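tool_log.txt
---
The assistant was asked to compare two proteins side by side. It first ran the structure predictor on the initial sequence, then on the second. Raw inputs and outputs are pasted verbatim so the downstream comparison step can read them without reformatting.
(1)
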Amino acid sequence: MITLKHFTLAEMPELGSAKFGNWPALSMVGGTTFSYRDFERLSRHIALQLRKAGIQKGDRVALLSENSPHWVMTCFGIFRAGAIAVPILTDFIPSQIRNIIEHSGAKAVFVSERLRSKLAELPADVEIRDIKTGRPVNTTAPYVIEDTVLPEIDITADDLALIIYTSGTTGLSKGVMLTHRNILSDATACRDIIILHRTDRLLSILPLAHTYEFTIGTVIPLLSGSHIFYLDRPPAAAVLIPALKAVRPTIMLSVPLVIEKIYRSSIKPTLEGMKLYHNPLFRPLIIRFAGFKLKKTFGGRMRFFGIGGAPLSADVEEFLKKAGFPYAIGYGLTETSPLLAGCGPGHTHLRSTGPALRGVEIRIADPRPDTKEGEIQARGPNVFKGYWKDEQRTREAFTEDGWFRTGDLGYLDEKGRLYIRGRLKSMILGASGENIYPEEIESIINAIPEVAESLVVEDENGLTALVCLKSEVLENLEARIQDGIDAAGDLGSRIGRAFSGVEKSAEHLLENMLENIRKEVNSKLAAFSRIQKVKLHPEPFEKTPTQKIKRFLYGRNSQQKDGKNLGKS
């Protein structure tokens, strides 16, 4: 592992090149490989390009691209220029991307060719650069890698390195400010969980714009001389299986969805179809054999399979434990860089996220006398500085004595292992670990003229919007049904279009209206936050004295599965 002199991410390419030289660092599966020397040279090229363009220390530079070696080299080039990287999730729609760039004040944005169309609405003063070359996209000059010495820039451990937005809606945008120390303290503390070596090969399948993948799946391997592989498309089975066979990774990070699908669609039916599996005497042996086969499916060399970003189902974890599969569980947030608690393979305890990371303190605030459960609060060098341009929410995120409020409910057992029992915040975790903010979706729904108020909840089908229509809409709807008025009449074109061609019954009229609402709302949302169903809520929602909806009375927002994993980011 390389030793950092100033504890900054900006040092990593040069020190990595000196120690690991021509060892492979970054590859596309089946494509180009870049060595640690290439990593240094090309990240320096990006830094020189930015300095030449007038980017100064502390300026923000956005990054919008699929995972690739160029994403990593560009990000570290931004660090080496003394600037602050603003990674953007590729699923965000153009208006969300524009909001993030405007809110962060980014002066430039690096983009892949595939995503360039999402930047069509950017202000003219934001320079758009190609992520592969570092050049402005409208230049006609020949591509030449600048290979001169990078002027020395005073970058310290407590300077901002990243601003990560977990949402993109204007007015509710929340940019998490992370320093070099935040990321690196978390990365080095993870050595208590996993130590990587030069011989390790990591297959990356999660977005680099998440702290989970960036800290644990990028920084740690690059500090250790390991080799990271990237896919050129989403990790569907048809893509992932050949990649696993080609790469034979020793390390992988995943969301629960991947392993849960494999277990429920393949392993569980196979096991339950075997007579010996139903014999208590043979069952443990059959499960261990299934674990061996699963490990072989993942390339046969797996020694660490980190599952994070969302809760892992209890039955799947129980199988992995009994099967001897080398899975690891932990808990964290974007605001904590991300890991707060965790443990490696062989030390997992069912339904627990593990003990606090080295250097991190965790306490349970105001625990209940019977269950010992309370809000999980934390402090340590990995805890963020605050939210960009949002002093109020930054103050709200911390207690008076300086502990970060996670908004999660849990308890610590007698051995210091953390258990998650629910959520105090309204945020919903998507199936692949994305942060979904109901208030953002509700603000879009409530802007529709026919809607009085709404509430987005999570149920067995995914995200459902409970919608209370305005009284005049319901009255007009009832009158239309009773009078048999043509659907395109005086209710107006919006409702008229919804009603055209539909049987004139209350059920069909309502169903069509609600479906139109769903389609209109989803057209303004990223794929992972789209609603699956809109249901009519016949009366106003019950509210607090300050007129806030009592969310806990609806859906299952406060009834999350036990346990949470490596980072909510």
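(2)
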Amino acid sequence: MPKDRVTEVVGEEDGHASSSVRDHEQAALIERLSGVREQLLEVADEWRPWIEGRDADRDASARNLLQYLALRRRDLRELQDPLVALGLSSLGHSEGHVQASVDAVLDALSAIVNHPLAPRSRPAPIDFAHSREVLAVRTGALLGPVPRRRPTRIMVTMPTEAASDPALVREMLVAGMDCMRINCAHDAEPEWRAMLDNLRLAEDQTRRMARVVVDLPGPKLRTGPLASQPTSDRKGDYLRLGIGDRLLLTRDPPAAVSGSGECPPAQIGCSLAEAFAVTRRGHHVWLDDGKLGGVVELVDRDSIELRITAAVAKGSKLRAGKGINLPDAVLDIDLLGTHSEEALQFAAECADIVGLSFVSRARDVKRVHAYLDQHARPEVGMILKIETRRAFEHLPGLLLAALGGERPAGVMIARGDLAVECGYERLAEVQEEILWLCQAAHVPVIWATQVLDQLAKTGRPSRAEITDAAMGVQAECVMLNKGPRIVEAISVLDDILRRMEQHQRKKRSQLPRLGVSDYVHSLSEE
């Protein structure tokens, strides 16, 4: 046989062998994806909806969330590269329509390999288009109409000055504020009502509207008064603590308790007595949004003694009223206790949205639903603020509880406390997971904490916070905190969100025309 013919025959045999291998791999891929689909159907069959026949969309969202959790129980990376190599979806953006995505990939894959699939008797709970439509409707119901030229809303926390300065509130509204947030952990009802009055006046003057968000203070664990006796660490109204120092958290007010050894520890009060019952030796404690950290060395019913393990080199200041985080302990405190009564009554009367601070249990969501059903308008919504590790770990249950009611609901990623509770190194991962789960439940998200913080305070933004603000386009709303340059921060955020909307929608990249692509036409001129 001529040499060329031998080469040709060998090439044909290699081609047939290669084709056979590809067919086998693709058939195996179909089999594995079919197994994934069966798991999705099983979890959907196990679901017993509490709202069946009342709201089909809420039921579909609950089923899709459970299917997403089932999908993410397995490592999908071994499937993703082969799918991408065939030009198919890697399932990387399937959160809002899990079964529909798997079905579409299976259909395309079976067409490529000419492998017919058995007819399907059970359709997906929700498809691509309807999932986007449901999220848009729920976002509008919770956060108000779509703003001009950007779908992402802007929420702004009111400073105390907003109660006495109507012009400031009007400037915020004109700059782009879509939601006014009244934080009831600060000020009191006279100030809250004055802020609301100033908003109504601004709305009349500008013909613009904003939703009113009232945050319940929640069972926030805070430092109390400093010990009455002077210590070497006390400097006026604060303590300065460095690594290796001891700190005694006491019942409020602090008792004159001496620590072991010659030099007594610095002392400061602790606002919640429940903390002393659940804290144990070896637990980590973080103070003032993580500026100070320590490890528990001794604990009894009246005091918790820490050894400081994290502070700045010259020592960190600690004042009364600063937050305390106990990430290793489980605080079981009534969300609607006496600390929230006044704010809850005000919210039921005046708010469009009630913010649930430190929510961590599904039953708390149901209790707030029941209270609002009795005392508030039907359209008043709620925001679940995810700011503790326990809330993050229980997020699927919280979302299902929110879907179980008839009120609009959303989730706030409260990244300040969340970073302290889960660890700063995990924050990026945690906020991504929250976004995924909320998209699977078709629940709007508020991106919060320190967005354009330096700009709001000083008028000079850091480069990192500009990038962070741009990533807020993944959420339905971005929250700004107060600061002397807050109006400027609102204007800058408005501009950033309008620009970013051209490039990204939720977790999916958009592909607008790029101006830099004109470089191709200029190559011949260089």
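---
observation on (2): Residues 242 and 315 are 4 Å apart (CA to CA). DSSP finds 18 helices and 20 strands in the chain.
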